[in-house]
What does this fold into?
Amino acid sequence: MLMTVETNGLCKQYGSALRVNSLGLRVPEGAVYGFLGPNGAGKSTTLKMVLGLTRPTRGTITLFGKPLTAGSRMEMLRSVGSLIESPSYYGHLTGEENLRIVQTLRGRPAREVGEVLALVRLGEARDKKVSQYSLGMKQRLGLAAALLGYPKLLILDEPTNGLDPAGIQEMRELIRSLPERYGMTVVVSSHLLSEIDQMATDVGIISNGTLVFQDELHRLHERSEHHIALRTGNNALALEALRENGIACDYSGEYLSLPPLEDAQVAHCSMLLCERQIPVLRIEERQKSLEDIFLGLTEGAVSL
It folds into this structure.
């Protein structure tokens, strides 16, 4: 599998504080890569190093299969679009005029300005001064600037910040469509698991500067453990009865915890307990939530 972004042993130290610690990112070509972690975990610092805005203390960065160096940086970043932290703009100019400046600096065709404005749903506000834009509109203008040139790699830091629910949904749909429509690889950072879960194909989770998980998103879902929760009128007797019949179970709080069972097996357990005159009060199928998994990986230091 080809990797658009790779880092090896990437570190960034400020004084005695190690903000990024031996990070090994692997961003597959054509993926929407969710870079997830609590506020202050090192996400923005990492992305700034990938963009050449901050110099790593140690480690290497590879973009499109080639090392990112001081000599190659300018040429390689021509194929990269980014929106890091808050977007930059000239408030006294219109949205279109702001994009014309970026379009001219990048040497892109004039038609792309109208195209990206339409993509981010700012076509009707193109002649409005940016100082009169809402926070969400400014965020979308920043995305439009990043999309100019239809880069091979698009890096977005908290792109749904400031958007209303409808705008968040539009942003998700747009980000999900970019790899197929334009062949882009997208890296999206966020501290919100729910956002990444609805748009990413791959995910990396960072905590205190260290990568604690990296794989396809469905691998994270596989960590959610299914089990059957059973509450009876006498859990101690029920535990003994089930174990005598070869059914693995544990006693936790008010519920017995059984492994994932087929419907027929659950019915058998219920009948077995009824025969012992142990009343079955509640049977539930439970699953460890992604939030619980995320909290476990990041030791609870997360905003959800």
About this structure: Residues 75 and 101 are 20 Å apart (CA to CA).
